[in-house]
Amino acid sequence: MSIRDEILAVLSSRETRQINFNFQSVTGSRVEVSSLSFQRVATAIRRGIIVPSDNLTELNDSSDLAEYHSSNNRMVARSPRHNFENEAVIIHESIHASFDLTRSVLPKVDDELAGFFAEAFYLRLKDAPINFYTHSATVVAKSAVETILGGGSPTTAQISNIRSRILADTGYSYDVRQGCGRNRRIPRQNCSGEWYLSRGDG
User: Fold this and answer.
1) Which helix (H) or strand (E) holds 113?
2) How many CB atoms lie within 10 A of CB 58?
3) What b-and-e string marks burial along 62-71, b requiring 16 or more CB atoms within 10 Å of the CB?
4) What is the helix, strand, coil percentage profile of the chain, to 5?
5) String of b and e for 116-141 (b: at least 16 CB within 10 Å)?
6) ∠ at Cα 78 (95, 53), nearest 5°?
7) Between β-strands 74-77 and 21-24, what pairing exists: parallel, antiparallel or unpaired?
C-alpha cells in the first residue's frame, strides 16, 4: 500500500470521523475541528492538491513522524500502518493542512493546540495506551477529550493548560509568540506577548 493510500485510510477511519471539538482562540475567535476537516484534506490528496510523500529526507527534523509543508502542499509521513503514534501525528498534521486549505488566519499557538487536541482525540478513540501520548500537550489534551466524550465542553482551564504546554516547549515557543526564542535562558516575561499568526494560503 502506498503512503498516499495509508494516509487516506487514516483520514477516513471510523475514529477520525468522530473527532469533533471547538475552543476559543487567544484572539477571541472560535476554532472548530470536525470530520469535515479531515474530509477536506482527503479530497485535496485525491485531487493532487496535497501530495503525500514517504521520503523522510524531506522532513525538517529527522526525528519527526510526519510534517505538512504549506510551502509546497506536501505531507511527508512515516508509514502509519499498525502504528497508533504515526497515525495520530498524521491526524495532527492534517489539522494544519485543513487550516491551510481554508486559508485560515489564526494564532500559531492555536493552530498547534488544535493539532494536539485532534491527536489526543484520535488516540483516545483508539484506546491507545498512555505512552502513545508522547507530548505533554497531548497528555493534557486527553482530559479535554474525556470531557467531550462525557457530554461536556472543554473548560477554559483545560484549553489554557494545553496552550501552556506548547508555550513551554522551546521547539514551539520560538515561532508561536513574537520575541520568544529557542534559548531556555530567555525569561518568559521578555516575550513581547504578541501572537504570531498562521496564514493559510491554500
Assistant:
1) helix 108-125
2) 13
3) eeebbbbbbe
4) 50, 15, 35
5) bbbbbbbbbbeebeeebbebbbbbbb
6) 75
7) unpaired
Read off the pLDDT of residues 141-168 as tens digits, 9 standing for 90 and up: 999 999 999 999 999 999 999 998 998 8
Cell numbers 474530509 correspond to what residue? 39
3-class DSSP state of 167: helix
Q: C-alpha grid cell for residue 112?
A: 498547534
Query: CA-to-CA distance for 141 and 118, rounded, in angstroms?
Result: 9
Enclosing H/E stretch for 19? none
CA 193, distance to chain mean position in Å, is 22
What beta strand segments (E) does the chain contain?
A: 21-24, 30-33, 51-53, 66-69, 74-77, 105-107, 197-199
Contacts with 88 (C-beta within 8 Å, 6 or more apart), sequence order: 119, 120, 122, 123, 126, 128, 132, 138
Task: Report the interhelical angle of 84-101 vs 35-46 (nearest 10°).
Answer: 80
Q: What is the pTM of this model?
A: 0.89
Using DSSP, state whether 27 is helix, strand or coil: coil
Residues 83, 167: Cα–Cα separation, whole Å: 28
Low-confidence ranges of the chain (pLDDT < 70): 173-175, 177-194, 202
Residue 161, C-alpha cell as written in the block: 493548560
Taking the C-alpha atoms of residue 113 and residue 166, their distance in angstroms, rounded to an integer, is 7
